[in-house]
Specification:
By secondary structure, this protein is α/β, with parallel strands linked by helices. It has a single domain, classed as 3-Layer(aba) Sandwich (Arginase, Chain A), CATH 3.40.800.10. Helices cover 28% and strands 17% of the residues. The chain has 7 helices and 10 strands. Helix 6 links the parallel strand 9 and strand 10. Helix 1 crosses helix 2 and helix 6 runs parallel beside helix 7. The chain is globular.
């Protein structure tokens, strides 16, 4: 059984209501007041609340938010449950920047690298997150990579795969899906659209195969889109979250 959690933020800014259409009732919302301070301090405060919620929910946590960095809170929460998962990360972007390599300074573009332990004094250490080894990371569908990301990925043991050819890591898995992994023509209103990617159906089929391994211990879904109303969005979220509830009984392994 899955346990949905809504984190209605993009970075440290609350989202407009209904930006993320939840698939039915019964979900928990993480909406804390954030302290004054740097953006890093505010994000750590938010992700501590996410981690605490993920650690407490029954069943498999399903976390929906407005950006990829919330996955750090999901990861920390899963670790609090006594699990050290590998990560399968669906995204059109690499998300492996550091503060030094990023030209924009956008922290969402650093999210996967932060999970690896980059800038640990700013995120992993205050959050209580145990960094994941790079050889336990699988980056799926990434095609919009900056030069700094390409340079890092050319030597790092992070595996890169197409959605139809995923090589799974061993052990339990945190499955992260940024909806922009789907070609932008099929997901309207994205903040950072990337064309030339896999179709919605191809991504759903790939996610279904990952879930069918029985090793997904948390599902993290990032919805970085503008606060507009499109029926396609609700359908996509319902389809993604519904895949987790179609597992065979006893498939979850913690």
């Amino acid at each position: 059984m899955s346990s949905p959690v809504l984190v209605p933020f993009h970075q440290d800014e609350p989202l407009a209501p209904d930006t993320i259409p939840m698939p039915g009732p019964g979900y928990r919302t993480v909406l804390p007041g954030l302290p004054d301070g740097t953006v890093w301090e505010r994000l750590v405060a938010l992700y501590r609340e996410v981690a605490a919620t993920v650690a407490e929910v029954e069943g498999t946590p399903v976390v929906l938010s407005g950006d990829c960095t919330v996955a750090l809170g999901t990861l920390a929460g899963v670790q609090r449950r006594g699990i050290d998962p590998a990560i399968v990360w669906f995204d059109a972007h690499g998300d492996v920047h550091t503060r030094e390599s990023s030209t924009s300074g956008y922290i969402g573009g650093m999210s996967l690298r932060l999970a690896l332990g980059a800038h640990a004094d700013l995120m992993a250490e205050p959050l209580g997150l145990r960094p994941v080894a790079a050889d336990r990371m699988v980056l799926v569908g990434a095609r919009d990579l900056d030069p700094g990301e390409r340079a890092y990925l050319s030597t790092a043991p992070v595996r890169q795969c197409a959605v139809d050819a995923i090589t799974m890591p061993e052990g339990p898995v945190l499955l992260h899906i940024d909806v922009d992994v789907i070609t932008a023509e099929e997901v309207p209103g994205l903040l950072y659209p990337v064309t030339g990617g896999p179709s919605r159906d191809a991504v759903l089929d790939s996610v279904r195969r990952v879930i069918a391994t029985g090793r997904v211990v948390a599902l993290d879904i990032a919805c970085p889109w503008k606060p507009d109303e499109y029926p396609e969005r609700a359908d996509l979220i319902a389809a993604l979250t519904g895949l987790l509830d179609t597992r065979a009984p006893g498939a979850e392994r913690e």
